[in-house]
Amino acid sequence: MLDVFRGMSQSWVAKIALLLIALSFVLWGVSGYLFDQGDSSQIVAKVDGEKISSSLFQRRLRQATEQYTQIFGAAAAEKIVKTPAFTKQVLDGMVDDLLLAHEARKLHLQVPDSALRAKIVSMPVFAVKGQFSRARYDQLLKDNGLTPAQFEAQLRQSMLLEQLQSLPQILAMASPTEAQQVWQWSQEYRNVYILTLQNQDFSGQVQQPSAAEIKKYYEAHQRQFQQAAQVQVAYVVFGEQNVASGSTAATGSNSAALQFESQIDDFKNTLFSSNDLQAVATKYHLKVQTSDWLQEGTPSTGIFSDPKAVALAFSSAVLAGKNSSALRLANGDLLAVHLLHYQPARARSLAQVEDQVRAQLVTQQAAELREKTAAQLLAAVQKQQNIQALQEKYAHQITHFPELSRRADNGLSTALLQKIFLEPTPAAGKVSAGLLNTHGTSTVYVVAGVVLPSPSLLNPSVRDEIQKSLAEQRVRLLSQSYLRALRDHAKVKIYQKNVEQVSS
């Protein structure tokens, strides 16, 4: 990937084009990465030997937090910035910036000092009565914790982008014809015949397994037929409603949400330091409840209809008699559990599960016959170039969609729709066909025709928007590919402990 891009860099225009692909965001103080050159305890990452300091990472976290607050509001931003994904995103961005700066140097891209000076002098924020003021310049930089050298290095990097603002169309230009083709593709109708075969269609055609076959299968798969482990747990649920009911300070939903989020760490600490759930229940006015018997790997009812809640009840800490960690439920509440009773997994005799083993063997044989039959039908359709092979035996099971579109699924699965619309357009009098095997079903689909809307129906403004969107997507994909290539060829080391200290 890099060899291809670097091979393009023989001309000045190509070098600028290359950087445009890479730079999908404004660089954040690349020169500032070197300001804190302490030992490894003071840095969060190294990129080809160059350090990203803890202090700069902390500053970038603050900047990103302020941006999220402006975009999403304080309450939502507070939740977002506490997630590990937020911290990783910020650090990844800084690493990418440094990788891009290194590549820009390799390509000898520069911003002349004269252009930098002209840019600074022309910035209204540094003007007093319409004229550039050195005193105002120095004071504003000082107020923002920057020296002139730091600011000018950052601005120089940003100006590399400004040079490239007019060139996206060169790299990722989409033509009106391509936009029209995408529109027609999204609006097309397909004449489709679908035959779905299920295991039960073939159960009566398979031979019943013998006693010896049942015994052999049971002995080879005893764990599959054992009684799963079971637990009964005490549990508490902590949410915004508990903050609102337990505190007079919470006067609104936003206030309750903020108070809830601010108390999560304390809730977790209390949970961790207690021998049971009573301490956390008392502190947060929670009711300790008792679950039904839960079976490992099987969702139950209520709170425990969530598979993650069942998994929490069988976690190693809970089985060791400790409080669980706090699990964030789909509605935002926190769940914690403590073990009351435990029954380990135990084997069941062949006599107890013989019918189950027999049914499974029959199902397996039926599935094999189903898939074999579907493959034979597909081959016949492709050879004959019509649906006669399907109609001979399965006419009553065929479903016809004369005008199937992407905009209405008609009860078909997303996976099946995707395969249908990926089939090539058949020639006149021919068909395109395919097969989708899923758990318990085989679906043979036949595309007998494709109808595209007339280009005259495409509104020019819609075409222009599609054309613009295509170009933006191409730039984004090229940017991502280029950054991945840079990462693959670089030596990047993350000091995770330092990252966690800064972000905590």
Structure, explained:
The chain folds into 3 domains: 2-172 and 470-503, Porin chaperone SurA, peptide-binding domain (Triger factor/SurA peptide-binding fold), CATH 1.10.4030; 189-209 and 351-451; 227-343, Chitinase A, domain 3 (Roll), CATH 3.10.50. The longest helix is centred in the C-terminal third of the chain and has 35 residues, at 350-384. It is built from 21 helices and 14 strands. 52% of the residues lie in helices and 15% in strands. Mean pLDDT is 84; it is low at 1-40, 164-169 and 245-253. The strands form 4 sheets. Strands 6, 7, 8, 9 and 10 form a 5-stranded antiparallel sheet that branches. A 4-stranded antiparallel sheet has the order 11-5-13-12. A 3-stranded antiparallel sheet has the order 2-1-14. The two termini are 37 Å apart.
Large-scale geometry: flat
CATH superfamily of the largest domain: Porin chaperone SurA, peptide-binding domain
CATH topology of the largest domain: Triger factor/SurA peptide-binding fold
In angstroms, what is the radius of gyration?
A: 32 Å
What structural class do the secondary elements suggest? alpha+beta
Gap between N and C termini, in Å? 37 Å
Q: Which stretches are low in confidence, meaning pLDDT under 50 for 5 or more residues running?
A: 1-40, 164-169, 245-253
Overall average pLDDT = 84
Number of DSSP strands? 14
Largest sheet: 5 strands, antiparallel
Helix content: 40-55%
**Number of discrete domains:** 3
Describe, in short, the structure shown.
This protein is of the alpha+beta class and 504 residues long. It folds into three domains: 2-172 and 470-503, Orthogonal Bundle (Triger factor/SurA peptide-binding fold), CATH 1.10.4030.10; 189-209 and 351-451; 227-343, Roll (Chitinase A, domain 3), CATH 3.10.50. It is built from 21 helices and 14 strands.
